[in-house]
Amino acid sequence: MIRNIVIVCLLVVVAGTSFWGYQEHKEKNAILINAENTYQRAFHDLSYHVDLLQDKIGNTLAMNSKKSISPALTDVWRITSDAQHDVGQLPLTLLPFNKTEEFLSEIGTFSYQTAVRDLDKEPLNDDEYAKMATLYNQAGDIQKELRKVQYLVIKNNLRWMDVETALASQKENSDNTIIDGFKTVEKKVTGYPENSLNPSFSSTKYEDENYQKLKGKKITKEEAIQIAKHYSGFSADPAIKIEKNGKGANYGFYSVSLVDQETKAEVNMDITKKGGFPIWLINNRDINESKLSLNDANLKAQKFLKDHDFEQFELYESSEYDHIGLFNFVSVVDGVRIYPDSVTLKVALDDGGVIGFSAADYLKTHNVNRKINKARLSMEDAKEKINHKVTIMEERKALIINDLGKETLCYEYLGTIDNDTYRIFINADNGNEEKVEKLKNPEPVYENIL
Amino acid sequence: MKGISSKWKGLLSVCVVSICLVTAPAPKEAFSNQIIQRGAKGDDVIELQARLQNIGYYHGKIDGAYGWGTYWALRNFQEAFGLPIDGLAGESTKKKLTNASNFNKAFVHEQINKGNEFTYYSGVDVDKQIKQSETQSKPKTEKTEKTETTKSASVPGGYSQNDIQLMANAVYGESRGEPYIGQVAVAAVILNRVESPSFPNTISGVIFEPLAFTAVADGQIWLTPNEQAKNAVIDAMNGMDPTGQAEYYFNPDTATSKWIWTRPQIKKLGNIFSVNKEVNDLD
């Protein structure tokens, strides 16, 4: 009797478990299919967009009228952006696929810059036509390879989930058609010479990304420590750790960490080997009260800059966070604000100490050969170019990097329409409207308005 | 006698009430000593905005954050009153403003705390200037903990509060056991990727790229981040990049990818190594 009851109970349990297991299994499969479909969609979209991209570049090659080239190139730019978006949704992060992504981005930049250019004044030159022809052929190569992969995926029902597992498990000998296909694409693109880009195109990166142009001689470890001590402001003898850059670095630097013996506050900073310039500094400590106003902190920040040989800087943006003041300064040369040369300072509002400093932008740009020419337009003439709905409140000269990546001398106007404030840059030579931005007001805290 | 006195009393109380509302002569020493500059937040800014609105210079929201609207209002006021036009509320500006305008601190702060939409123009009926907040029925308890009634948050240029929140989630999920500098590094790598042509161009695109971050794959990104993670994100957004321009990093204890081990390292931050794709030949 008891035995029967036990058997019945067990049967019920077994039946229940199997039913539950079956349900789980079904759910898991549904989720897997869902994930697979998302990947498939991104992949087929990618293939379609590269097809389209190649077509559209081909079309522009045959175009003659400027009126049709600009919209066609804008279209190319949009499609590259779509293709990049598709790549970002595929599990290719662990696969070397970056050259292909860079290639797409290259097409995007090229088509954008050519499309926004005034082709009446500056028509496409032969180099640029040649460049477009090359891009057309290269896009054709990629398209061919992708189509092959796409064909195999459809024919053999290949699954992207397998790609994901294969990549995640890092099996060297994993034989996966999709992975192989993408590797072939990447190999093709890697074979393209980098200088297939014309000079006006590569000059968009005018920044001295790797601090090559810094002046000064190489500093030693000892000197780096002295510089770090000076910046940290620690009076007592701090505990010091110093390391130089690893071999993957783009430029030479020392990383110094100083710990104050008493307060245990820690300052980390990087200093360039060449010239001993500070790239950034972070002092991580708790700040629990505000004793100083933002304006007091501003004065402290200015003093810090002066004390560390950053002369001729002007505050252009300040904001207050919880017990912290943040200040952006730009350098001023002959009364012209040089917007690329900016430094950021973070000041604690309890004792006014500088707890954060970043000069990376400034170091990258301030040595670029820069000649500030005389403006051809007067400030009054330039003002005429501004939308008449804007009430102008403030004006000055400024140097900015425009959309085409060139340094341009401008007149800067701050103006308002109703409650919004705009920063407008008018080219001081030809009166072009180089940049218009709506300045941000502090955001409402959502926690409080919901 | 009695009748007259009660009549007087009534009149008097009406006077008192109206004084308390808007027309009260403001106490002269209301502002604190600070010079208020653009970007500041807090009670002084609330007073500045309310006073400027009171005499018709400021038309924005009284939220205690000194933004552009307040800046132009103050400059216009300074111009009209023959003060140096610098957008700084210093001693003389505050004095002139205090004399020219009215401010009822209790009233203004009450409206802000209740979340009411309101204005503070003089010569307009008080009741007409208040629009009751829809969510007023929910009394907010957290208000008592806060000493300041600021209703706005500063955000680094080009980003929103939600960007900060999303990145803080990723940073916390990826590196909550790391020292602060390591967390700034993770945030900096995300931003370097947004800039890079070989990665998606948005913060969410970078974070949710398949297989890019383990914290996204295993769901740890949905843990609630702490203040430190947020501060790290804000530091990185303000241009502090401890990684040496890296787009990749790994933690030797948890890294699953063999490929990442073979990459040339840039530097060590806490337990994290920032790495480059290729070796650079430096001297």
What is the secondary structure topology, with strand pairs?
The complex is a heterodimer of chains A (450) and B (283).
Chain A lengths: L1 H61 L3 H23 L9 H19 L9 H30 L4 H10 L7 H15 L7 H4 L18 H12 L6 E6 L8 E7 L6 E7 L5 E7 L9 H14 L5 E9 L2 E10 L2 E13 L5 E5 L1 H6 L13 H5 L7 E11 L5 E11 L2 E8 L5 E6 L4 E2 L1 H4 L1
Helix pairs in contact in A: 1-2, 1-4, 2-3, 3-6, 4-6
Chain B lengths: L1 H22 L19 H12 L13 H13 L10 H10 L4 H10 L2 E2 L11 E2 L20 E2 L7 H15 L4 H16 L7 H5 L6 H4 L9 H11 L10 E3 L7 H4 L3 E5 L2 E4 L8
Antiparallel strand pairs in B: 1-2, 4-6, 5-6
Explain what this protein looks like in three dimensions.
The complex is a heterodimer of chains A (450) and B (283). Chain A is 45% helix and 23% strand. With 450 residues, chain A is of the alpha+beta class. Chain A has three domains: 28-202, no CATH class; 221-365, no CATH class; 379-438, no CATH class. In chain A, strands 1, 2, 3, 4, 5, 6, 7, 8, 9, 10, 11 and 12 form a twelve-stranded mixed beta sheet that branches. In chain A, strand 11 and strand 12 (433-438) form a beta hairpin. Chain B has 283 residues and is mainly α. Chain B contains eleven helices and six strands. Chain B has helices spanning 2-23, 43-54, 68-80, 91-100, 105-114, 161-175, 180-195, 203-207, 214-217, 227-237, 258-261, and strands spanning 117-118, 130-131, 152-153, 248-250, 265-269, 272-275. In chain B, helix 7 crosses helix 10 (227-237). Residues 14-28 and 135-149 of chain B have low confidence and may be disordered. Classes of the chains: A alpha+beta (450), B mainly alpha (283). At the A-B interface, helix 2, helix 3, helix 5, strand 4 and helix 9 of A face helix 3, strand 3, helix 7, strand 5 and strand 6 of B.
